[in-house]
Design goal:
Bound molecules: zinc ion
CATH class of the largest domain: Mainly Alpha
Structural class: mainly alpha
Distance between the termini: 20 Å
Helix content: 55-70%
Number of helices: 16
Number of domains: 2
Order of helices and strands: HHHHHHHHHHHHEHHEHHE
CATH topology of the largest domain: Serine Threonine Protein Phosphatase 5, Tetratricopeptide repeat
């Protein structure tokens, strides 16, 4: 089982062009594909071209699954190349319409934060938390960046911990605690006595923010391919060569979970699972002028499904159904401790 490869050493311009071509092949998945293409253009510093893609999507707002996300990404991109007034107008509009998805909130709050608008960033994170997390006992994973970002901005503003900050501390599972990471005393009180240390702390904060941005600018995850039992049986009877990849269905499921845990432990953000079907895999092989029996096609198939927006985020909430499709909560199934 090989996951999609992380976006290092990627020719972003070529990748954007490839994704645009794929969008023409799968118009029903154009939104996910063009968002990813725009992210690559941003990484290539082709910001006006990225804006053009966002505008292309926004010219059909009724057909979009997540128009607020597209608007937020557009605003953040615009502000990066001196279109501040336009960016602010979009951000104000998004705050007024109060989307139910955390991603646009995080993007606009971080855009404000990265342009030193800490008060406005704080207000935006707080609006999102109030809207999405009031009376929510277990905050969904997608909302964690709201709490972490708010925690970070509040430390920079020198504000005391509140309940949501305490929650952020509990949810944060990295080896460095949020308080250590975001401690304003560490950042600011070092002062001119030791500019090297000050600089190191600031770059640590920026690295954390950068990791989030990278995760967000890749709106679909690093995805591992999952075959339901019936599909795997059909696949292996049609293409016996693939049996070396998949010794048995239970092994296949266990490998998915262990690969994802390994990726997660190594700090890969934004993980997911894509589910294969034999007909869609055969169609993919045909579009690549290749044979479905070629195991090197499997990771490319996974990548293409993920690029088409077909990935389901991993891990599930502990009490939610397991990703494997057996009717059991995740923490009693593949999410059980090893
Ligand atoms: Zn804290
Ligand atoms: Zn399971």
């Amino acid at each position: 089982m090989r996951p999609d490869t992380p976006a290092e050493n990627v020719d972003h311009t070529a990748e954007a062009a490839r994704l645009e071509r794929t969008a023409a092949l799968y118009p029903e998945d154009a939104e996910a594909l063009l968002l990813q293409a725009a992210a690559h253009l941003e990484l290539a510093d082709a910001r006006p071209a990225a804006t053009a893609l966002y505008d292309r999507l926004l010219s059909t707002p009724d057909k979009l699954e997540n128009a607020p996300l597209v608007r937020a990404l557009k605003a953040s991109n615009l502000w990066e190349y001196d279109h501040e007034a336009e960016a602010r107008a979009i951000i104000d509009g998004l705050r007024t319409t109060a989307p139910r998805d955390p991603a646009p909130w995080v993007i606009i709050a971080e855009s404000l934060e990265s342009h030193d608008e800490l008060e406005a960033a704080h207000d935006t994170f707080t609006e999102a938390a109030t809207l999405l997390l009031t009376d929510v006992p277990e905050p969904p994973y997608a909302t964690h960046p709201v709490l972490f970002g708010r925690h970070r901005v509040r430390r920079m503003l020198g504000l005391p911990h509140d309940d949501w900050d305490a929650r952020a501390d509990t949810l944060h599972s990295s080896s460095v605690s949020l308080d250590e990471l975001h401690d304003p005393k560490r950042v600011w009180s070092l002062g001119s006595d030791n500019p090297a240390e000050l600089e190191a702390e600031i770059s640590r904060l920026q690295a954390e923010l950068g990791a989030y941005r990278e995760a967000l600018s890749r709106p679909f995850p690093v995805a591992v391919l999952h075959w339901p039992a019936a599909e795997l049986t059909e696949l292996l009877s049609a293409y016996p060569d693939l049996a070396t990849e998949y010794p048995s269905h239970p092994d296949h499921l266990a490998t998915i979970e262990s690969s994802l845990r390994e990726l997660s432990a190594s700090g890969t953000p934004n993980l997911g699972i894509v589910t294969g079907t034999v007909p869609s895999y055969e169609a993919f092989a045909a579009s690549e002028s290749s044979s479905p029996g070629d195991p090197t096609l499997l990771p490319q198939y996974a990548t293409t499904l993920a690029a088409r927006g077909r990935a389901v985020a991993w891990p599930p909430q502990r009490s939610a159904d397991c990703w494997c499709g057996q009717d059991q909560p995740y923490d009693a199934c593949h999410g059980a401790a090893l």
